[in-house]
Amino acid sequence: MADPLLAQDIIDGAAVRDRPNLFVIGCFDRRITFYSQQVRALSLVHALKHLGYLNANPRIAVIGGGAAGVTAAAAAALVSNANVVLFETAGELLSLQSTTERRRLDPHIYDWPAHDTVDPIANLPILDWESGTCRSVREDVLLGFGDISVRIGQRLQRRTRHRVLGLAVAADGYDLRFIDLDDPAPAPENETTERFNMVLLAVGFGLEPREPVANIQSASYWSDAGVPVTEFEARPTPRFFISGAGDGGLIDLVAAGATNFDHAGMISMISHHPGIDELSPTLAGIDVRARAADAAGNRFDFLAAYDNEVLGQLTAIGLVAAVAAQLRPGVRLTLQTQHLEIFEISTSTLNRLAAYLTIKACEADVQRSFRHLQCDAIVRVAAPVPAPEPAADFWLDCAGETVAADAVIVRRGPGRSVVRGPFDDHLASYADAHREWLARHGDATLVPKLSRHARTLFQDAARDAEIPFAPRVQRQMAQQLPISVQLRRDANQVRWSGAVPPNQLVRAWSADQAFEIILPDGPELLGPAAVAILRVACHSRTSRLHAAPALWSHHVRALSIDSLHAEGIAMPTIIDGNPGGAAQDPVAIASDILARQIHRALDSWLLEKLHAHLAPFFASNADPSRSIGLTIAPSLRAAMAESWAQWHAAFGDDSALLSHFMRLMICAVDDDNNRDAGQVLVGPTKWKEIVRGTVVALAIATAWQTTSPKSAGPGNLVRLRDGDSDWSGHGCAADLINGSDMSLCAATYMWQTQFVILIVKTTIEVARNAERPFAQVDTDQPALSETDGSGPVIMSINREFSEAVAAGLPALRALLAAVEARHFEALDKAIMKGAA
Asked: How many C-beta atoms lie closer than 10 Å to residue 799's C-beta?
C-alpha cells in the first residue's frame, strides 16, 4: 500500500487553480466511502495547518454536511483559532445516513482483501467510529462533533437548512450567497451574503433522482425502503431487474437474490470464509491488471478472469454453496449495464465477488436464473399481448428486448451536476486538473491514509481541548466498569434492584460485562432465583458475588467445581460484605418468575449464538475453533439445515423446550432432584459440548426420521415410529455421570430412554437401550465397555459415524439402520435364551 501523501501533494489535489483558498474535498475522487472522505478531510486540514494556511485565523466556510464536511469543520476549528461555519441544505447533518438500519458502513472493507480490512474500528483521532448500521455510525460521529462544538463554542457554527447559491471572488476571499430555508418565503431576492477568507467545498455527489427511469420510481439506496424486500408476496419465481454496475447496483443484486439480506452477514461470510485467504493474492492480482487496463483506456473483463482464475477454488471451499443456501427459492435476477462487461474497476473487490458468487449460485440451480443485459437505456413499456411470462408489475425494453420484472431497482448514481451547479464557474478546470493529479499519485489516492503527523496533531488538540473519548471507547470503558445489582428476600417474594433489569444479566455472557451481584440473604431464602444467579456467575469471567461465604460457599461449590455432572465449571468469586450502589429501581417479584426471566434471556442468547454457528456450517462446513469437529457431506448438511429450521423455530416459540433440551444435553442425570445442577451447567463454558451435541443429534434426527426435541422427560428427544410405539431419546454431551467419567460408566448407567446419543468428549457414540431390561446379551456386541448383564447396550460408532456423515445422507441412514438391526438381533437372542 502506498505511503500517505505529503502535505503539499494534498494541497495540490484539493486546491482550485486561480482560486486562492478554495479547496475541494472528495467530490471528484475515486473510491468514495464514509471513512475515506473523513481521511481526506483530516489530511487536508492537517496540510493547511502544517503549511501555514490557518495561521491568520481565517473565517472558513465549509459547504456540505456529509462525512467530509462535518469532519473538516470540526478538525479546522479544533486545531486553529479560525471561525468555521458549516452549511448544509438538509435539516440535519449526515442526512443520508439518518434513515437506514439495513445498510452498513465499514471503515476498511472497501479495500478487502488487503491486510486488516476486516478491522471494524475506523481508528480516527477525532470523530471515530466502529462498523455498524448507517444510523449507528452517524450517531457516533455526531456525538463526537457535538463534543467538539461544546468545547470550541461559537468558533464552530452549524447552519442546517441553508442553501448556498454561489460564490463570488472578493479581495480577501469569497462572498458566499445563501438563503435560509426556514425563512417564510425563501427566494433568491431574500438571499444573504457573507464574507469568508477560505472555502472548503464538501458538497458530495447529491441525491439519486426519484424517477431515474421514466415512470419508474426507485427508493434511495440510503433508505431502508431501497433494500429489496425480504418476502415477495409468495411468488414462486420473484423477478428482480437491477440497473447499474456501481457498488450500489452490485450490493442490491446480492440483496435481491438473498432470502433475507444481511449486509454485515454477507461481508462476514465472504471475508471470514475458510480458505478465502488463499485467494487473496489472485484477487489482488486481477485488480492490478484491471487498473492497468483502465489507465491505458481499456476495459477489463472481470467475469472472464474470475471464471478462469478463482471459480474452481471458490467452489471447492464451499463459498458458492454458502451463497446458494441464502438465495430466494426460484429467484430470477436481471442485471442491466451500459457496457458489455458486467463489472467495473471503480467498484470494491468484495462487492464484485459477492455479486459474482450470487450469479454463479443462480446459474448452478435450474430453479433460479441470472442474465445480463447491455444497453444504454431502459424504457418502461406496456405488457406485450400475448405476454410471454406470467403477469408482471413492470415490462421493460432494453435495446429491443422485452423483460418482465416484479421489482425494479435503479442504481445509476446521484445527480452530481445539481450539487456542483452553484460552483461551476469556479470548477471549470478542476476536473481535468484533478484527474491528472489522481494519475500522478496512483494508489495513494485510491486508499487515502492519514499520516502519523496528522494523527498526532488531532490527538494532541483533542487532548488539550479535553474532548471526551469517542463513543465506541466510552462504551468499551462502560462495559469494563462493573454493574451492581442486588437480590434479597422481601416477605414471600424476591426484591430485585440495581442499574439494569434482570434479563440484562445476559450481558455477563454476551458482552463480558462485569456484574457485582449483592446477595444479603442465603440461597435457600432466594429459592429458584439463586440458581439463575449462580448460572450467570459460573460462566462469567468478570462477575462476583457479594455474600456471606458461610451461607453461600458450600452451595456454590456443589454446583460448580464440585459438581457431579460436569468438568470445568469454575467457582465464582465470593466476597463478604455489601459494597452498595444497587438500591435503585427496586421491584418485588416471585422467585420462580424472576428465575424464568433470567434463564430465558440466557437460553435465548445461547440459541442465537448456536444458530449463528450452525448457519455457515450447514452452508459450507465452516466450523470456527473446530467446535463441531466433523466433516459432513453437502447433501446431509442441506437436510440438517431444513431440520434445524424447524428446531430453531420450535425452540424460539417454546422456552421450556429449549431449556429442557440444553439441560439434558449437558447433564446425563434426568430427574427433578438434579434439575438445578443441570441448569447451572448450561452456558458458555460448555459451548463446544452444546454445539457438538446439537449437531450430532441433528444429524441422527435428520437421517433417523422422525426425531425431534421434546420438552419433558424422560430424555430430550422423541422418535415417532410408523406403526410402532414412540421412542424417547437422550442426546447427551455430558462429561460426568454422578462424578464418574462418562466414557467409563456410560455402559453401566441406567438410562431412562429407549435410545441415547452420546458425545463423549471428542468421541461420538450412539447408544441404544433395550425397550425392556434383559439379563443376557451376547458379548460380541460392539460395546463401549462391559455391562453388568442388565444395563444398556452401547454401540460405538465413532469412526463409522464420521465416515458416514462425510459420505452423505444415504450412508448415515444405512449405518443407523444397521445399528438398529444389530440391536434387535441381540434382543431377540436374549429373549430366546431367557425362554429356554
From this structure: 10
**pLDDT of 36 over the 90 cut:** yes
Q: How far apart are CA 660 and CA 581, in angstroms?
A: 35
Measured CA to CA, the distance from residue 752 to residue 758 in angstroms comes to 14
**What band does 788 get if pLDDT is binned at 50, 70 and 90?**
very low
Q: Can you tell me the mean pLDDT for 170-179?
A: 95
What's the CA dihedral at 25, 28, 34, 40 to 10 degrees? Answer: -40
Assess contact for 593 and 653: CB atoms under 8 A.
no
The arithmetic mean of pLDDT across residues 322-335, rounded, is 92
What tens digit of pLDDT does each residue of 736-784 get?
888 888 777 777 788 888 888 888 655 555 554 433 332 333 333 333 3
Q: Which of 111, 108, 103 is nearest to 120 (CA)?
A: 108
Sequence-separated contacts (24+) of 108-111 with Cβ below 8 Å: 108/35, 109/267, 109/271, 109/348, 109/350, 110/31, 110/33, 110/35, 110/36, 110/348, 110/350, 111/348, 111/447
* Cα 197 to Cα 209: distance, rounded to the nearest angstrom: 34
Mean pLDDT of 716-722: 84
> Residue 94 above 80 pLDDT?
yes
- The CA distances from residue 148 to 36, 68, 162, 282, 453, in Å, are 21, 16, 22, 44, 21
Q: How far is CA 77 from CA 158, 334, 391, in A?
A: 12, 49, 59
Query: Which conformational region is residue 331 in: left (phi greater than 0), alpha (psi within -120 to 50 degrees), or beta?
Result: beta
Above pLDDT 70, what percent of the chain?
92
Please name each of the domains of the chain with its CATH number: 7-207+417-474 (3.50.50.60), 224-413 (3.50.50), 481-589 (no CATH), 616-835 (no CATH)
DSSP string, 808-827: -HHHHHHHHHHHHHHHHHHH
**Residue at 241: amino acid letter:** F
Non-local CB neighbours of 331 within 8 Å, separated by 6+ positions: 237, 238, 240, 256, 257, 362, 368
The pTM of the full predicted model, rounded to 2 decimals, is 0.74
Q: What's phi and psi for 199, nearest 5 deg?
A: -130, 130
pLDDT band at 506 (very low <50, low <70, confident <90, very high): very high
The model's pLDDT over 550-578, given as tens digits with 9 standing for 90+, comes to 999 999 999 999 888 888 888 999 999 99
Which position has the grid cell 462391559? 786
Give the neighbor-by-neighbor strand order of the sheet with 401-405.
Answer: 378-380, 394-398, 401-405
Cell numbers representing residue 591 in the block: 422467585
d(CA 207, CA 211): 12
Mean pLDDT across 134-150: 95
Spatial CA neighbour of 192 closest among 164, 171, 216: 164
Rg (CA), the chain: 33
